[in-house]
Design goal:
single chain, about 160 residues, three-stranded parallel β-sheet, 4 helices, about 15% helix
Length: about 160
């Protein structure tokens, strides 16, 4: 229930710190956030020499928000990415039934779709550790409940922001 308790901060900016190989981190300003508190923009990381699979941790500048971070995983131009839906693909969510969706997201013990963990394991091995992108029609506030069912570390989790 924490996502419902956290404050939403529309029209807010945040300065982020992106680690840099030569030394000093790159500082970028994100925002302003939309009515749902989400900011979406492209930011150059400055690490054009990153090796496939390299992961960097992005934090708030000057560690202003110590519990806030994001991870970015680099893929080389010849690398693979797998894009997967979450709702009723990875996790049973009953997306066509609003009451069922709330119940399966916040009340029920999470249940995976039969056979999918094994199938995703094969994909992961065959494509040699691809970048994983997950999509969800669930509102942004429910993402923490959805993340429990991801099979591989997400490069990105994109959801509905309204």
């Amino acid at each position: 229930m924490q996502p419902f308790i956290d404050a939403i901060a529309p029209a807010t900016y945040i300065d982020i710190s992106i680690p840099s190989t030569p030394g000093q981190p790159h500082i970028h300003r994100l925002g302003p956030s939309n009515a749902n508190g989400i900011s979406s923009q492209i930011v150059l990381t400055g690490d054009g020499d990153a090796i496939d699979g390299t992961v960097i941790k992005i934090t708030s500048a000057n560690n202003l928000f110590p519990n806030l971070s994001a991870h970015t995983r680099f893929a080389n131009p010849g690398g693979w990415a797998i894009i997967s839906d979450i709702d009723d693909t990875i996790k049973v969510t009953h997306t066509t039934d609003p009451i069922g969706a709330l119940k399966t997201t916040f009340a029920d013990i999470p249940k995976t779709t039969d056979g999918l963990p094994e199938f995703y394991r094969v994909l992961h091995e065959q494509f040699k550790n691809p970048a994983w992108f997950y999509l969800s029609a669930s509102p942004y506030v429910s993402h923490s409940a959805l993340c429990d069912k991801l099979y591989f570390e997400a490069t990105s989790l994109t959801g509905r922001d309204e």
